[in-house]
Task: structure prediction
Amino acid sequence: MEFIDYYKLLELEKSASQADIKKAYRKLARKYHPDLNPNDKEAQAKFQQINEAHEVLSDPEKRKKYDEYGKDWQHADQFEQARSQQQQSGSTGYGNFGGGKGYSYSGDFEDDTFSDFFEQMFGGGARNSGSGRGTQFKGQDFNAELQLNLSDVYTSQKQTFTLNGKKIRLTIPAGVENGQTIKIRNHGAPGIKGGPKGDLFITFNIINNTKFKREKEHLYSTEEIELYTALLGGEVTVDTFDGKVKLKVKPETLSDSRVKLKGKGFPKYKKEEQFGDLFITYKIKMPSNLSEREKELFRELQKLRS
Amino acid sequence: MTSEDLIPAEEICTLYKVERTFISSLYESGLIEIVTVERKEYVPCDHLRNFEKMMRLHKDLDINIEGLQAIHHLLDQVQKLQKQNVRLKNRLSLYES
Result:
């Protein structure tokens, strides 16, 4: 466990007054407050550190202990014992550090927001025991990421997963997008003093395990067609998301030309039985390893065109 | 909206230890909604999260109502940009092999 320099964290000199501490805390808190930095875990971690530093330095008792023992804080208790034995009246009494600010938070915080350093030095009871600025009653919100394959979200499906030891059943609507976040009410941490439960936010990370590219409800793919089919027209069998279909190819189809298969795309999110389109780009496959006869015929065709 | 979706404003004041005027100011600034049913005022559940956010910013950072309005607006913009960013990233993946 490393020593944490609370003064450095708040960018303060050791001689800083209470007003300086408050000012420095406010300045940094405005920068790193989790409500001002949504989904920024780094800012949240930094805010926790600042909060902890403020908790200690703004409390004269805690600050005194911190200043006195500094890097030797681990031996503070032994020092205390030796001191109290020397002073038979035993009136120094650093033991009770109750009356902290009680900072609890319903944002995207981990449960244990104070460092091991803080816990070791001031004990677990040093926080959340006071009258409390920022006391919250709504439970903590949870954030989770769910990884799914693209083929999984083609249809609505029920999934059960475990979060913080609790089983949660979830119906994932077809057509959910990569990076999309859904809120599940009252599936966060329990509220405090009868307050409402927090919410659960699930962000979907969708891995494309198919040959199709997707943009919202539309799908895109490429299909190779033979040169002769492209020139003379014909039929090809192409893949769609839910099976193969036969397509007529017009004569003299150019490479990179695109056809649209209406309603053969991806389901529209929360719109039952509505689908996007599938766009197929044709790539013409050139014949290779031509025989002498084939070359001869191509030369003849060339002569006809010139 | 059913009655279950509404929280009495008085209850919020007691639970969150805020002045009634704070809720009124948030309402007047368009930061939360207040519904009046039979002369009693309620905050819709959907607005509770926003209310809590504003309350934290107000209490933790000493931000006044005008500041909260500005923050609310900017956070809205950030959220829109983040969503747009996700959309564009998804779109970009169309062109990446």
